[in-house]
UniProtKB/TrEMBL annotation, chains A, B:
InterPro entries: CBS_dom, CBS_dom_sf, Mg_transptr_MgtE_intracell_dom, MgtE_N_sf, MgtE_transporter, SLC41_membr_dom, SLC41_membr_dom_sf. CDD domains: CBS_pair_Mg_transporter. Acts as a magnesium transporter. Belongs to the SLC41A transporter family. PROSITE patterns: CBS. It is a multi-pass membrane protein. Keywords: CBS domain, Cell membrane, Magnesium, Membrane, Metal-binding, Transmembrane, Transmembrane helix, Transport. The chain crosses the membrane at residues 289-309, 315-342, 363-385, 391-416, 428-452. It comes from Luteimonas notoginsengisoli. This is Magnesium transporter MgtE. It is found in: Cell membrane; Membrane. The keyword Methyltransferase does not apply. Residues 143-206, 207-266 form the CBS domain.
Length: 453, 453
């Protein structure tokens, strides 16, 4: 329901826009587009086929260009940049926050980067270079060096006068940071604390030093986790000497959380979260064919198991009819366990201390499922083929395959994680190979042993 | 890599805790647990098997009990509540924020709810009843009625004096809300604006009325979307008469975004995001068996297609060996398209105006994949069986099935959405049924037509 509302709204905008584009009336399109926030424009551009996308991109207020570029996936961004002059690009990005600019800079042509650097003042250029010196997906790349600092040996009144002199504060400033003479991070003061204390209160009585600073080399995932565990709005970033380098704000963290979720959902299907929905057919083909090729290899592995039993199938052709059921059910059951494991691993909830308990639980659940559904399946097969032995074979085979699925569902992601691979990416392919192979092997193997006696 | 760091850290905590629990030394466990934030304790409790979970839960500082309850899934929460006396529960929840309390209240026993209501003062009781009067998953249920309001006809100085008198502000207050005499929402003033303007500045010069208020009946998804599109930290909530009712803060929105992502990942495998990883075997069994039962029915549908061709398979047993490849590859390719569609629909990026373009693109990609991989498959089959006609049959069947997969991958989620169902939940089952049926039908059907001439 809820999603439907959202969907209707954007779909209506899309339709309005499409109709206006089709009729060539660009005035209304421009007006519609420029009532939207940059992130919304980005969303809209991502949902337009290339030709219309370029038209709408040309109508976006140049002031918003930079922010829109920040809010689209890599592949769409590339297509938008391809459409701009170097001058336009420089104008678009030069007013961005340092962290956003750092995010974009790698996608820009070298000549443009030089121009952008030249257009910046020395302080900002140094800040950008500093941010870029940290590895992608670390706190250093997420931080904005623009922070407001105060000294501990002063009073509320002095700070208030300083702030009035300074004028506007950086966006989402909810705390001032207290630093030593050597710019070491000592603690923070909430704006609301400043507002609710008398003018003559010494600053050092108001310092909150409970929130630990974030280490500049910490991973983006770790940063996101801390923000959501502690309900932070912003957090200071320090180097290993505790020198304050910048601050990370919740809006960037929300983007990380969204990206993580997309990555997990898409990588399970062998997709990239930066893929343009309307990317050119040859490009989409090249990307998909690799993944499908891997799956083709695993399918051959399963087929070669069936090939071993050609003689059995020749004698009892019902086996060919029923074998996809045994294999497929294993795949379904295994995917359930795998999905729970991938989530548990991502949340850090699964380790050596509880994985055995989990494995044992899942195997028991699988045995109950196997006996229940296996018996049901056996009954149906009996009604279909009137062969008690065939029924017993499929009941046993399903139970064996569901138990294998549970074992694989728990152990495959644990092993992948230990080897440093992403369980969300490779887990599904490996697991369904196991359940296919085990399904065919147990069903056709038992059939050969029991039915061909 | 990034995830591995987090994983190592929590896994180490888990191991330490487990070792300490095993040895019966509860002192270190208590100390370890109470260095953690409530959300971290919740995460830890979710990763413990029931027996250890109850021990650790007994060691949590009672002051944190309420916040921990807010941060665990429904099923784990139930198990924790089952362990507490009514008095303990009342003590745990009575200091929670109204929005958190509203979130919990439905899981509490009726007698406890009465006790909690009695322990509250009249103002808070009325606020709670108001929040509870809105539907779950709407802005009304997410908001906290505790807001700081000021009048427009005053000055910065007066407001500052009022704030100093008032003392502490509600958590995450970044704006004060300006209301009329009738409590209608007029706009907001950032704390940093108050701090950077002279004492005698009139408030009505500082009002920001650009951010639209959130309607109290808006869905949680819509609220989350707005927050992330506009980088909001907090937003006012109003009724249809523009009366200010409360405010929503980003920390609750982060929870919604996480829940959405979990829901999407888990529902595709027929799982519930509130499932306890260690739920009792009979309960887990009951839940899983329903989903697997549905899949069993669809597997029979596919098997019955194979059953139609028993005669053909009897004559050419190679077909039984190869048919799972054709069906399985269709499933893989279809899942890729479905995953992209589910994401696009969730983001509101797909509507009637672009779905045809998308369909056409995906069909072309599928045809290229089909011809490439089909030819490869045909070659391998030729090497294996030395039968040109069989090779041609499998090449054509794979191409047909990949094209069906693309059609189904685009059309199934669109149709589900239109009928008001969740494409993430039912899409996979329907789609793999289509690709299984089409895979068997095209391969065995073509084989019957061409090879048995």
């Amino acid at each position: 329901m809820a999603e439907a509302v959202r969907h209707d709204k954007t779909a209506r905008q899309l339709r309005l826009l499409s109709d206006a584009l089709d009729s060539g009336r660009l005035g209304p399109v421009r007006r519609l587009v420029n009532t939207l926030a940059p992130a919304e424009i980005g969303n809209l551009l991502e949902s337009l086929p290339p030709a219309k996308r370029q038209v709408v991109w040309g109508l976006v207020d140049p002031e918003d260009d930079g922010e829109v570029l920040v809010h689209v996936g890599d592949e769409v961004r590339e297509s938008l940049l391809a459409d701009m002059d170097p001058d336009e690009i420089v104008a678009a990005v030069e007013d961005l926050d340092i962290d956003d600019l750092a995010d974009l800079v790698e996608d820009l042509p070298d000549t443009v980067i030089d121009e952008v650097l030249k257009s910046m003042d020395r302080e900002n250029r140094e800040r950008l270079e500093q941010v870029l010196s940290y590895q992608e997906d670390t706190a250093g790349r997420l931080m904005n060096p623009d922070v407001v600092t105060v000294r501990a040996d002063t009073t509320v009144d002095v700070v208030l006068r300083y702030l009035r002199l300074r004028g506007e504060l950086p966006e989402h400033t909810d705390h001032l940071y207290v630093v030593s003479r050597r710019h070491q991070y000592l603690g923070r003061i909430a704006l609301q604390v400043l507002l609710t204390h008398e003018a003559n209160t010494p600053i050092n009585q108001l310092i909150d030093d409970e929130q630990p600073a974030i280490d500049v080399v910490e991973s983006g995932d770790e940063v996101a986790r801390k923000f959501s565990d502690h309900d932070w709005i912003s957090a200071p970033v320090v180097d290993d000497g505790n020198i304050l380098l910048g601050r990370i704000t919740i809006d960037d963290v929300v983007d990380i959380i969204r990206d993580q979720a997309e990555h997990q959902a898409l990588s399970a299907a062998g997709l990239d979260e930066d893929e343009d929905m309307f990317s050119p057919v040859p490009r989409a083909f090249r990307r998909r064919v690799v993944w499908l090729g891997v799956n083709l290899c695993t399918a051959f592995l399963a087929a070669s198991v069936v090939g071993r039993f050609e003689g059995t199938i020749q004698q009892i052709v019902a086996l060919a009819v029923l074998m996809p059921i045994v294999a497929g059910m294993g795949g379904n059951a295994g995917t359930q366990v795998l999905t729970l494991m991938v989530r548990g691993l991502a949340l850090g909830q699964i380790g050596s201390s509880n994985s055995r308990t989990l494995l044992w639980k899942e195997v028991r659940v699988a045995l109950m499922n196997g006996l229940t559904l296996g018996t049901l399946l056996g009954l149906i097969v009996w009604v279909w083929y009137r062969d008690v032995e065939l029924s017993l074979v499929i009941t046993s085979a399903l139970t064996i395959n569901l138990a294998s699925a549970a074992l694989g569902g728990v152990l495959v992601p644990l092993a992948l994680k230990r080897m440093g691979f992403d369980p969300a990416l490779a887990g599904g392919v490996i697991l369904t190979t196991i359940t296919d192979v085990m399904g065919f092997l147990s069903f056709l193997g038992l059939a050969t042993l029991i039915l061909l006696r």
